[in-house]
Amino acid sequence: MVVVPADAETLLAALPDALAGQGPALLPVSPETEAEETAFVEQAGGLAGARAAVAASTAVVVRTSGSTGHPKRVELSGRALLASARSTNAILGAGRWLLALPVHYIAGLQVLVRSLVAGTVPVVLPSLAGGAGRATGHFTAEAFTRATARLRAESPDAPLLTALVPAQLHTLLADAREHAETLAALRAYRTVLVGGQRTDPGLLDLARARRVAVVTTYGGSETSGGVVYGLPDGTQRLVADTRLAVIDRSILIAGSTLATGYLGDPARTAQAFVERAGTRWLVTGDLGDLNEGVLTVTGRDDQIIITGGLKLDLNEVTRVLHELPGLADAVAVPFDDEKWGTRFAVYADGRDRTIPRLTRDELNAVLRARLGRHAGAAAITYFSFGLPRLPSGKVDLSSLYETAEKLAGTALAVQRDRPPRDAV
């Protein structure tokens, strides 16, 4: 296994051999993780004495975002990556891609693999083209519009495709209110894949109302990228031979796109990848429903807390938050509390100052009316520059956990409402 800088040119040159099993496995790294991952490789598993070797079939190792503070190294075979890419190209149709996501994450990496399979070269957004994995700037609507114009000029007859995270789509649609060229750029794509995290239904409705061909995607590093595509007509398509199951609300996925496991972490591998009736399944950690073959993701299974002796599902709290003005992207983050056991804080994007901000009391009046007296938040905080995000576009939950933990013992947290009468 070799550590390589996460830039498109380097990976496009190295991926063919890795995918074919004729070269070493690749571990793409950002500047922030390069030293840690290099030490991991050079010390033969490095961290905490990990001793597992890379599987012979492994083509790429993808470090997860670590949005909850626990990064993992996912081993992906060439077979799994190619199965995903070939099926995606068949579902969406051949075309030329705009790369708008970092390639050390699975969504960006798969744009490269899909392009290699199709025999094309993607246009790389300037903010990702700094070389050696170094971004040259933030994602902007202007840069997206310019890159789209270049793509159209270079391939006037080819269908265009791109993959975005919800925050990027939100940026583009907001800019499109004032700049017609931004909307025209979005409409130039036959498919705009959106995934990596929850996408606000209102954002999807707005995109489709403006005739943007949005396709939602559900999956992750452990499934070589998206394996469930939500098409504009309301139907879903599964990638390759993907199978879905929901057991006790927990979503499981099987199929040829599954990862080999977590490098150097057999305990996590055994917990996440299980055998059932001769079939290998990934336990995703997500909750959902499966009705007539249509999957609906409802939350995470690690969002159940006990507060004041009562169970509270923060997935339900989040659903209520997202219905309130100005809280469409808000997150509920738990923290330990000496008296109640666990409490939660709410963090929201405060960039839009035209929307009135709810006070904690106003928010809690709604939460308690909908979910019970134990559902009050310890605090609500609006970030004037937006929620902290990882390079992948996901909310940086790890930093928010740290922020929430600082509430414990503060004057704000001490000013607790009395617990419910039936609390233990």
Automatic annotation (TrEMBL):
InterPro entries: AMP-bd_C_sf, AMP-binding_CS, AMP-dep_synth/lig_dom, ANL_N_sf, ATP-dep_AMP-bd_enzyme. SUPFAM superfamilies: Acetyl-CoA synthetase-like. The lineage of its organism: Bacteria, Bacillati, Actinomycetota, Actinomycetes, Micrococcales. PROSITE patterns: AMP_BINDING (PS00455). Pfam families: AMP-binding. This is AMP-binding protein. Transmembrane segments: none annotated. GO terms for molecular function: acid-thiol ligase activity. PANTHER family: LONG-CHAIN-FATTY-ACID--COA LIGASE, NONRIBOSOMAL PEPTIDE SYNTHASE PES1 (EUROFUNG)-RELATED. Residues 49-262 form the AMP-dependent synthetase/ligase domain.
